[in-house]
Amino acid sequence: QVQLVESGGGLVQAGESLRLSCVVSGTIIFSITSMAWYRQPPGKQRELVAAITSGGTATYTDSEKGRFTISRDNAKNTVYLQMDSLKPEDTGVYYCNAKSEYSWTSTNYWGQGTQVTVSS
């Protein structure tokens, strides 16, 4: 199995930065093919923010391009989301996601989430 633990959320003002971390552990972490960060704004559905493959290729949604950077440190089993120039609309609970391919089964794993609040 795979466990994900996020940290780094908080309350900041518009224009400031935060770095989220997601520590990955478990017995089948070798089966993870990609990692991602999702955001769930208040009263809305969860949405993709950024993703990174096992090979290190990163993708972003249009609203985050140039402001957010996803990265991974394989030695620390940690994925990061550097968020710069934060806007009030970035407010929400941020979830770490891992996609696993193991024993012919695809599985999505989720962390518990970390709250990010951006005040104007």
Summary of the model, kept short:
This protein is an all-beta fold.
Model description:
With 120 residues, this protein is mainly β. 0% of the residues lie in helices and 61% in strands. It is built from no helices and eleven strands. The chain has strands spanning 2-7, 10-13, 18-26, 32-40, 47-53, 58-60, 68-73, 78-83, 92-102, 105-110, 114-119. Strands 2, 4, 5, 6, 9, 10 and 11 form a seven-stranded mixed beta sheet that branches. A four-stranded antiparallel beta sheet has the order 1-3-8-7, with no helix packed on it. The radius of gyration is 14 Å and the shape is elongated. The mean pLDDT is 94.
Radius of gyration, whole Å: 14 Å
Structural class: mainly beta
In this structure, how is the largest beta sheet organized? 7 strands, mixed
Give the amount of beta strand, in percent: over 45%
Q: What are the segments in which pLDDT stays under 50 over at least 5 consecutive residues?
A: none
C-alpha geometry: elongated
The helix-strand sequence is: EEEEEEEEEEE
N-end to C-end Cα span: 40 Å
List the main descriptive attributes of the protein structure presented here.
11 strands, seven-stranded mixed β-sheet, 120 residues, mainly beta, single chain, four-stranded antiparallel β-sheet
Helix-strand layout with pairing:
Blueprint: E1 2-7, E2 10-13, E3 18-26, E4 32-40, E5 47-53, E6 58-60, E7 68-73, E8 78-83, E9 92-102, E10 105-110, E11 114-119
Parallel strand pairs: 2-11
Antiparallel strand pairs: 1-3, 3-8, 4-5, 4-9, 5-6, 7-8, 9-10, 9-11
